[in-house]
Design brief:
Elements: E1 2-4, E2 9-13, E3 20-24, E4 30-34, H1 40-89
Length: about 100
């Protein structure tokens, strides 16, 4: 798993992710860290899949929000109609603010 790169530094290779650390033997500090190499083709496929799934999620969210807004609009229309009917049935005349002067 580990082998010497020089007399002062130690190279440690991770068997799981295939990353590499260069560690100073005297201080124990990490001098350099190289991330694992990745297969570019699979990364692209994964990224493309993520973009497509995100696009589908956005479409679902939009449709959900659209339905909520449509229901809200219908509810407001019903409330407005009830208020209009109530106003039509009320024989009293509303006060004109200009008449108060």
């Amino acid at each position: 798993m580990s082998q010497r790169a020089s007399s002062e530094n130690l190279d440690v290779h991770c068997p799981l992710c295939h990353g590499r650390l260069t560690v100073d033997q005297q201080t124990g500090e990490v001098i350099d860290a190289l991330p694992p190499r990745r297969d570019k083709g699979s990364d692209f496929d994964q990224a493309l899949g993520a973009v497509r799934s995100a696009s589908q999620e956005r479409e679902k969210d939009f449709q959900r929000a659209f339905k909520v807004e449509r229901k809200r609009h219908e509810l407001l229309e019903k409330k407005f109609e009830k208020a209009r009917e109530k106003a039509d049935d009320d024989p009293s005349r509303p006060v004109n603010p200009l008449d108060l002067d």
